[in-house]
Amino acid sequence: MNSFSLRPALPSDLDALTRLEQRCFSSDRLSRRSFRKWLKRQHAGLMVVEREGELGGYALVLLQPGTRLARLYSIAVDPGFRGQRLGEQLMDAAEEYAHQERRLYLRLEVRKDNPAAIALYEKRGYRLFGLAPDYYEDHQDALRYQKRLHYQPANAEQIHLPWVQQSTPFTCGPACLLMALAALRNQPADTTEELLLWREATTIYMTAGHGGCHPMGLAIAAHKRGLNASVWCNQQGPLFVDSVRDTDKKRVITTLHEHFARSCKAQQIPVHYQDFTAYDLDSAIAQGKVVLVLISTWRLDGRKAPHWVAISGSDEECFYIHDPDPGEDQVPLDCQHVPIAREKFEQMRKYGQAKLRTAVVLGG
């Protein structure tokens, strides 16, 4: 093993990486185009081990922007060099890269029928936290493992919250509400129900495209479906009017806001005109409630868009979110129980010039 050296991959490694991938895998291969992309990407670490100019293996780690999460996307050791502990050397490098990038967790997927790899990961302190059925091209399941890199493992208060992917660009709120309904009432997710929820809760207009969902609108829709709901908002008056310039659109948004406020009052849905603090969020999670929080996506994808996420747990360092909208180069697994450092989350949950902070708290 001492004869092998570890270094970052270079564009000149492209051909060798492609050949190595062909030798190591019969399916689920990374393409030459993919390797070229990862060699250029800012939020990725691609490392190789080599001896006398010959590649013995590689590890690819992706960093999820705006979070404290890294993912071991792929790792491979040339069959001709196995038995020389190159896998462990690459794992060391992957963990060190994630650590240097200040990630709290490194996550990975492994085939359920690969006991050697599973044994290696568990030996290194990785803990099983999920199953992804039918994950690989041959329909084999994947086991999901993670390792806490910076601190000792914490006892996260975690709700069993099923994840739901939004089916349109504007139904993040309804998708999050479907998660709550699945957790609290065992109601399966349904695209028709998602769209109906949006029709009930939408503001109609936003800066571009269809309008998102008003917190009171989501609370009313949840109440109608048998959940206890309350709204927390740090400001009174119409929400989201700053996101449009047209006077007629502002009037529509204002009309809907007033309707939602009257409906909440008539249905005795509590509306608290104050900030929902981190302490309140921890308390709600401890009581088994599901909290939907409006965030700005700026720190996730560089766009200042309002976006609803569901909170799946918390610990001393992080809040964990279910994000219903996989971004570019993400798979659904990347959007579940995403750890966001508490100080970062406080920054994310402010939207717009008015620094709107709002949440919908749901119970069974």
Question: Describe it for me?
Answer:
This protein is of the alpha+beta class. It has 2 domains: 5-152, Gcn5-related N-acetyltransferase (GNAT) (Aminopeptidase), CATH 3.40.630.30; 158-363, Cathepsin B, Chain A, CATH 3.90.70. Helices cover 33% and strands 25% of the residues. The chain contains 11 helices and 15 strands. It has helices at 14-24, 32-40, 86-100, 115-123, 172-185, 191-201, 215-224, 247-266, 278-286, 298-301, 342-348, and strands spanning 5-8, 44-51, 54-63, 69-77, 105-111, 127-132, 142-148, 157-158, 228-233, 271-272, 290-296, 306-314, 318-322, 338-341, 358-363. Strands 8, 9, 10, 11, 12, 13, 14 and 15 form an 8-stranded mixed sheet that branches. Strands 1-2-3-4-5-7-6 form a 7-stranded mixed sheet, with helices on both faces. Strand 9, helix 8 (247-266) and strand 10 (271-272) form a beta-alpha-beta unit. Helix 1 (14-24) crosses helix 2 and helix 6 (191-201) packs across helix 7 (215-224). It starts with a strand and ends with a strand.
Give the gist of this structure:
By secondary structure, this protein is an alpha+beta fold. The chain is 33% helix and 25% strand.
Q: Which shape, going by the Cα principal axes?
A: elongated
Task: Give the oligomeric state.
Answer: single chain
Assign the structural class, choosing from mainly alpha, mainly beta, alpha/beta, alpha+beta, or little secondary structure.
alpha+beta
Beta-strand portion reads 25-35%
Question: N-to-C terminal Cα separation, in Å?
Answer: 57 Å
What is the CATH third-level topology name of the largest domain?
Answer: Cathepsin B, Chain A
What is the overall number of helices? Answer: 11
Per CATH, the architecture of the largest domain is Alpha-Beta Complex
Classified by CATH, the class of the largest domain is Alpha Beta
Number of domains: 2
Radius of gyration of CA atoms, rounded to a whole number? 23 Å
Reported for the largest beta sheet, the result is: 8 strands, mixed
Low-confidence stretches: none
Kindly report the average pLDDT value.
91
Into which percent range does the helicity of residues fall?
A: 25-40%
Report the order of strands and helices: EHHEEEHEHEEEHHHEHEHEHEEEHE
Give the number of DSSP strands: 15
GO molecular function: acyltransferase activity, transferring groups other than amino-acyl groups
Domain N-acetyltransferase: 4-150
Protein name: GNAT family N-acetyltransferase
Pfam families: Acetyltransf_1, DUF3335
